[in-house]
Design brief:
Blueprint (H helix, E strand, L loop, with lengths): L3 H12 L7 E8 L3 E7 H6 L8 E5 L16 E10 L4 H13 L14 H7 L1 E15 L2 E5 L12 E3 L3 H8 L4 H13 L9 E6 L17 E4 L8 E5 L6 H19 L3 E7 L15 H4 L4 E5 L7 E2 L8 H14 L6 H7 L11 H20 L10 E4 L2 H11 L5 E4 L2 E6 L1 H17 L12 H11 L1 E2 L2 E2 L21 H10 L3 E5 L5 H24 L6 E6 L15 H8 L5 E7 L7 H5 L3 E4 L5 H7 L9 H6 L5 E5 L7 E5 L4 H13 L38
Parallel strand pairs: 10-21, 10-22, 11-19, 11-20, 12-13, 12-19, 20-21
Antiparallel strand pairs: 1-2, 1-7, 2-5, 3-4, 3-7, 4-5, 5-6, 8-9, 8-24, 14-16, 15-16, 17-18, 22-23, 23-24
């Protein structure tokens, strides 16, 4: 048998939700999905208004006598205001108002001809239509929130209150006990040491007009996001241009960076920066991600620039990647009609076992001829680049006789190698072709010039069987993808940075759009497939976050789900890859990807078609009018994995200088993480205390405006 003290202790979290001074009315009609509330102008004024989309709480128990409440009454129903509701007397109220206005003789009216107290009291009552968002109750001493109501009783009097301060903070940041434990387990699985703390991203905001419900700092109730909701999850940011999507992404990047720092685990972050705002400081943002984290950020660009790594591929060094680009370009251009082009496209550059000396030498000269072909096609060679391949004395002599001069050689073990500049290699292979046509060069059963090498030599000379061919000129369109400055495959290099926990920014604000698209896809493919292979091999993939803007260009509604980007969006989570994708067009994203997205941040959308598409998910339908009407920058409707419902939030402006101060405190002084909650539960901080209860003698008359 529990004592009264135990009852009070067990119900305290529930009782704290109810603030008697914020009473706004009673429920007069209820079902499993909706409730209608009778309210009064005076009650609403005392509670600083009841905004559209605002939260309300309904309960039958008296918060000052919780232990006296029946067991079935020990619950609190969470409501959201979605519009007005009619009362039976509304038509009479309209008639009374019209009659009153018709009797006026001046614009501002006369107090002598105002309503009498009884009429004024009668006219102040009206109804609110509310959706039911769940039921708070106590189980095993903990606060729980069900996503519906279990039952309802028409005769029960349910008092309705508008939560503010601590009560509202508890509601909007509620995470059920099961989810809290799961988040801790997920964090441990990702290698994060210690408890993972939620971070503030903004404050509750119901409407664009926030003169009353956010009139001072005390009414700015903070909203937090659990970092575990982001890691290895999908996050969707929808909204028109300049409504705060980029600001949100910066918040998320900084949040993940803090988790990595505090949790002692590397988390790589890859940002596809279409406008250069994350890689470069600008006047509007007063800083950039690269500026905030200079030692942990690696920037890439398509064109050479100070402080940036080269994003393109070195075709001379990254043979397979470069050749794959050439193959792709030729196939898309429809140039694979000729036999020699098909033979070239089917060529293999795979290196055989060096122990197979004959095959390996054949591969060496094939690669050498391919590099000479690149040079003649206009691909700039790296500085001091040399092309080396083995050739017998007989072959060298035949070529030198044809060329009319000797070529430089070096000795490697028992073999003699040609050691040529790219220009010299072109001359050597052209002479070798002429010599071979006159008298086949000696070299094994297939001769020194096999079919593949013959194709390369013909393309180098632009001639086949005495007929002119385009040859090396077919490669020209791929030159824009080439950079002689790169020494390693860019996708492999980026992946190594991500594994090390770096923030990698691909500045795609300049350069050929086709190059940007190709390279973006190549990097995404390497990230996805390398992490997938790690997972398949039974090892733990690294923690990686990928940020993409204009996502409708990458995984559109009709895209094949087996392509790189749709696969990364749909399957990447199980391989440790989290995705944040942003777009202005909800309807353009593949529905399968939307259906698997855990976190949603929605700002202003400008047409009903997009809002209707959005309304199919969670409870965004409640916000359809607001999303179209309110164009305020950073005003978002947020649904996270941990949150059971959508919360309207004004996203904080990302402050680069504040983040720099935090980092400085982390490395050399007191921490400045003032926006970090001290626990993983819902209680509010002292930063936003509840407004004090007025003394009984100061409380206004319940039914009359004073």
């Amino acid at each position: 048998m529990r004592t009264i003290g135990q009852h009070i202790a067990q119900g305290s979290d529930l009782v704290k939700l109810i603030q008697p001074e914020n009473f706004v009315g009673w429920i007069y009609d209820i079902s499993y999905d909706t409730a209608r509330v009778m309210t009064n102008d005076l009650w609403k004024a005392n509670a600083l208004g009841v905004p559209h989309n605002g939260f309300l709480l309904a309960t039958a128990f008296n918060p000052e006598a919780y232990t006296e409440a029946a067991e079935e009454e020990r619950e609190v129903i969470l409501l959201r205001v979605i519009g007005p509701a009619r009362l039976p007397k509304d038509d009479e109220t309209v008639r009374a108002k019209i009659d009153y206005f018709q009797k006026q003789t001046e614009v501002h009216g006369s107090r002598d001809r105002d309503y009498d107290d009884v009429t004024r009291n009668w006219m102040q009552f009206h109804g609110l239509e509310c959706s039911i968002r769940g039921t708070f109750f106590i189980r095993d001493g903990e606060l729980w929130l069900g996503s519906d109501i279990e039952s309802y009783f028409s005769a029960t009097r349910l008092n309705v209150y508008r939560p503010r301060g601590r009560a509202l903070e508890t509601i909007v940041n509620y995470v059920d006990p099961i989810r809290r434990k799961k988040a801790a387990a997920d964090a441990a699985a990702l290698g994060i040491k210690g408890p993972i703390q939620p971070f503030r991203v903004g404050t509750v905001r119901y409407t664009s007009t926030d003169r009353q419900h956010r009139r001072d700092e005390g009414e700015h109730v903070p909203f937090y996001i659990a970092p575990s909701d982001l890691l290895a999850r999908r996050t969707f940011a929808a909204g028109m241009t300049r409504t705060g999507k980029s600001n949100l992404v910066k918040h998320l990047v900084s949040t993940v960076k803090r988790v990595a720092d505090d949790g002692g685990v590397p988390i790589g972050q890859l940002i596809y920066d279409l406008n250069g705002e994350y890689a470069n400081a600008n006047q509007q943002d007063k800083g950039s991600i690269a500026d905030v984290y200079p030692n942990d950020t690696v920037r890439y660009r398509l064109v050479p620039a100070a402080g940036f790594e080269e994003l393109r591929t070195n075709f001379y060094e990254q043979l397979h990647e470069g050749f794959a680009i050439i193959q792709r370009e030729l196939e898309e251009a429809g140039a694979a009609q000729s036999n020699y082009v098909r033979s070239f496209l089917n060529m293999s550059l795979d290196e055989p076992d060096p122990q197979e000396r004959g095959e390996h030498h054949r591969w060496e000269r094939r690669v050498a001829a391919y590099r000479a072909l690149l040079y003649r096609a206009g691909f700039d060679a790296p500085a001091n680049y040399r092309i080396r391949f083995a050739a017998s004395q007989a072959v060298r002599q035949a070529v030198e006789n044809e060329a009319g001069h000797p070529f430089n050689t070096v000795q490697r073990g028992n073999a003699t190698y040609l050691d040529l500049t790219p220009a010299e290699a072109v001359k050597w292979f052209l002479a070798a072709r002429r010599a071979n046509l006159a008298n086949p060069l000696p070299g094994g059963s297939d001769g020194w010039v096999d079919d593949t090498l013959r194709t390369l030599l013909d393309m180098l000379a632009q001639e086949q069987n005495g007929t002119f061919i385009s040859g090396f000129r077919l490669l020209a369109d791929a030159r824009k993808y080439h950079s002689p400055a790169r020494t390693d495959n860019v996708a492999d290099e980026i992946y190594r940075h991500l594994v090390a926990g770096k923030i990698v920014i691909l500045d795609l604000s300049v350069g050929d759009p086709r190059i940007k698209e190709r390279i973006s896809k190549d990097v995404a493919s390497r990230v996805f497939h390398t992490s997938m292979n790690t997972f398949i091999q039974g090892r733990t993939p690294p923690n990686i976050m990928v940020y993409v803007e204009e996502a409708h260009n990458l995984f559109g509604r009709d895209d094949d789900l087996t392509d790189t980007w749709p696969r990364l969006a749909k399957e990447g989570a199980k391989f440790g890859i989290g995705l944040v994708y942003a777009t202005q067009e909800v309807s353009s994203i593949h529905p399968n990807i939307l259906a698997n997205t855990e976190n949603w941040f929605v700002t202003h959308l400008n047409n009903e078609r997009e809002v209707r598409e959005l309304a199919r998910f969670y409870d965004f339908a409640d916000f359809s009018t607001s999303i179209i009407r309110a164009q305020d920058v950073g005003f978002a409707r947020v649904k996270t994995l941990s949150s059971p419902f959508v919360v309207p939030v004004q996203i904080d402006l990302f402050d680069p200088e504040a983040e720099k101060r935090r980092l400085a405190g982390q490395h050399g002084g007191a921490s400045t993480t003032d926006d970090v909650r001290g626990d993983g539960a819902a209680p509010a901080s002292d930063e936003h205390p509840e407004p004090p209860l007025p003394d009984a003698g100061d409380r206004p008359n319940l039914f009359h405006r004073q």
